[in-house]
TrEMBL record:
It comes from the Bacteria. This is PA0069 family radical SAM protein. It comes from Croceitalea marina. It holds the Pfam family Radical_SAM. NCBIfam families: rSAM_PA0069. Keywords: Iron, Iron-sulfur, Metal-binding. Residues 64-301 form the Radical SAM core domain. The keyword Metal-binding applies. InterPro entries: Elp3/MiaA/NifB-like_rSAM (IPR006638), MJ0683-like (IPR040086), rSAM (IPR007197), rSAM_sf (IPR058240).
């Protein structure tokens, strides 16, 4: 089949088959030729916002590797289009592809703030940090229009409940007023994802994300306003960004981050095919080397489902990455500590206002 042109502004370059569906959709050469002759677009490459209506919004996290107890996601799918994103596979549960559909069909949960409030008011609920963006970025482009994340943060503040945030979008600074109020009570921690200091690398890996300069500014502004920041230098991809780990750690420390985390990339489920197709088109000169290096970190496979190892990796390359991280913590973070969020205030505000008696 004739190879399609590289889709600029997108991570995935194809729609992989959905493992839960019997039928496979593909674009045939004769259809593409018909569109050319008719002067029509075979693929508009536009983003669609699709409302969905979940009954609950807070998810219990059972994985021992993730480092969170509960998460919530105002959106499913993510227009940022990060090629390595582990969340891509979740889109298949909704009947879509983990490839381009994940970036172009964004599911919107408009009722998220009301569902969250219902959860926090429940007598059975005991306060524990709920992380926004456990799956997809809560500050992706859709948030500018729908403001679901901002409304959820207002609920957390109303009920004095701890909340964590993971994002790679500078849009979070729009909500600095609420974040400062939460931080004043020790109720918020922000994880800013920064995977490279190279804009060229960023554009290829994460095509619709905030620039590196704006992300570093975001870390600085948050820190200057007393909001604790952890930098997520993840994933480390051998042959693409792993050599930057020390410099990344130094840079985020200089901008005010109190800690950093990282993972060694793994390409689970459909992501292996999506990533392989992408790197052969985006970085053909180093594709084989990068893929072999990833396999070296996971016992010869692109995927790794072993708890305790899947995010850490193993082998010489993974060990080198961990050694760099250890050195970075000693050099740049020895006098820094990310605070534990408070859970003791929520019970007093169970009804949305402080109980006097």
């Amino acid at each position: 089949m004739k190879q399609s042109p590289y889709l600029k502004g997108r991570g995935a370059q194809q729609n992989t088959p959905n493992k839960f569906l019997n039928h496979i959709y593909e674009q045939r050469d004769d259809f593409l030729e018909f569109c050319r002759l008719e002067g029509e677009e075979a693929d508009t490459n536009r983003t669609q916002y699709i409302p969905i209506f979940p009954k609950t919004i807070v998810n219990k996290v059972t994985s021992p590797d993730v480092g969170m107890q509960f998460s919530m996601n105002p959106y499913q799918g993510c227009e940022h289009g990060c090629i390595y994103c582990y969340a891509r596979n979740a889109h298949e549960y909704w009947g879509y592809s983990a490839g381009l559909d994940f970036e172009r069909k964004i599911l919107i949960k408009k009722a998220a703030p009301e569902l969250l409030e219902e959860k926090l008011k429940s007598k059975k609920w005991k306060a524990a940090t709920i992380v926004l963006s456990g799956n997809t970025d809560c500050y992706q482009p859709a948030e500018r229009q729908f403001e679901i994340t901002r409304k959820c943060l207002a609920v957390f503040l109303k009920y004095r409940h701890p909340v964590g945030i993971i994002t790679k979008n500078a849009l979070i600074l729009r909500d600095l007023d609420i974040l400062k109020a939460l931080s004043k009570n020790g109720l918020v921690g922000v994880n800013v994802s920064i995977t490279s200091l190279s804009e060229e690398t960023r554009r290829l890996l994460e095509p619709r994300t905030t620039t590196i300069a704006k992300r570093l500014k975001t870390v600085k502004v948050l820190a200057e306003n007393g909001i604790p920041v952890n930098a997520m230098l993840a994933p480390m991809i051998p042959g693409i960004n792993s050599h930057e780990l020390l410099k990344l750690a130094q840079t985020v420390a200089d901008h005010g981050a109190l800690s950093f985390g990282f993972t060694v990339v793994r390409l689970n489920g459909a992501i292996g095919q999506i990533f392989t197709d992408w790197i052969e088109k985006a970085m053909p000169d180093r594709a084989k080397k990068v893929l072999h290096s990833i396999q070296d970190c996971h016992g010869g496979s692109l995927n790794d489902s072993r708890f305790g190892l899947r995010n850490r990796g193993e082998g010489k390359i993974a060990s080198q990455i961990h050694d760099m991280a250890k050195l970075a913590r000693q050099k740049y973070f020895s006098d820094k500590e990310f605070p534990k969020l408070r859970t003791d205030l929520h019970e007093q505000f169970k009804d949305g206002q402080m109980k006097l008696f």
